[in-house]
Specification:
Length: about 280
DNA sequence: CTCCAGGTGATGG
DNA sequence: CCATCACATGGA
């Protein structure tokens, strides 16, 4: 089916945006795959406003539409960022087509626990190894992605030995993952019910997990619970704020602006045009 | 080899 | 409250 967006969508930028790690480019040009909560989608970029989603309209409407935040018009935000000038304007310009995805709370929790002090390629590698312990994804072979698995459930994660966990490259985060699995599997952290809490209470719930600080909690709140006023402050966003302290002032949904700025800062951090 | 990565918890002031 | 420091490991 063809999906039309109110403004723009860019599958390639989204796949590279650092908010999702279970995704990739396919062999055919302009084709990408995304895996979330056990659902697998392959899609083709048609033009800046349309993609061809290789799924039935039922699952698009019930899952992927919300996943891609497909009802939101990002143009007003990008206009405000353009008016700010500087980094904000450049980020809004260059990031056109980025969207903040709505993903699974458990998958975001363990993904961003793993993410700390790792590069994005290293995060992907580690999560892929962890996923070797998870269930096979239905339709993966048909989509040309044989062997694709999703991340293990809390119960499955608990059944792994620390050696197995360490062999995935989790390092010192292995104990954090174990604690997250323990709390979710044991019902001490109910991720579905947590969605009804206000921001402050939700953050406190998430931070009860060992290895979850403000930054990881913000990532889960933004990428899983759609709390668009949260701004995960990693090294790149701190550099943006240092150079442009008012980058987020007066912005209605700063979490969305954060995604453009993160994308821009990371892309230009190494080529001399941003840092220093 | 060195340096850094979508940070956090423990410790000491 | 804030400033350091260790932490495991892959990727550049």
């Amino acid at each position: 089916m063809i999906a039309a967006f109110p403004d723009e969508i860019d599958l390639k930028k989204i796949a590279e945006s650092g908010q999702i790690f279970s995704c990739g480019q396919m062999e055919e040009p302009d084709h990408f795959w995304f895996l979330s909560a056990g659902n697998l989608l392959t899609a083709r970029q048609i033009d800046p406003q349309h993609i061809e989603a290789f799924c039935e309209s039922g699952i698009w409407d019930s899952f992927w539409s919300a996943f891609f935040d497909a009802e939101r018009d990002y143009r007003p935000l990008r206009q405000v960022m353009r008016e700010k000038g500087g980094i904000s304007a450049a980020a809004a310009q260059e990031g056109a087509g980025l969207r903040v995805l709505r993903q699974d709370p458990w998958e975001m929790l363990i993904s961003f626990i793993v993410s700390q002090r790792k590069s994005i390629p290293a995060i992907r590698t580690c999560l892929a190894k962890l996923s070797d312990f998870g269930p096979i994804v239905p339709g993966a072979v048909c989509a040309g992605l044989p062997g694709l698995r999703r991340l293990p459930s809390p119960d499955r994660l608990l059944s792994l030995t620390s050696q197995q966990l360490l062999a995935c490259g989790t390092g010192y985060r292995a104990a954090y993952l174990h604690d997250a699995a323990l709390k979710v599997a044991g019902g001490k952290l109910n991720l579905a019910a947590a969605g009804k809490l206000d921001d402050e209470a939700l953050q406190a719930e998430l931070m009860n997990v060992k290895g979850v600080g403000v930054k990881v909690a913000d990532c889960v709140m933004l990428f899983a619970y759609g709390r668009t006023d949260r701004v995960p402050a990693d090294v790149w966003i701190r550099r943006v704020k240092e150079r442009c302290p008012d980058a987020f002032t007066g912005i209605a949904a700063p979490g969305l602006a954060q995604q453009y700025l993160f994308f821009y800062a990371r892309r230009h951090g190494r080529d001399g045009s941003f840092v220093q």
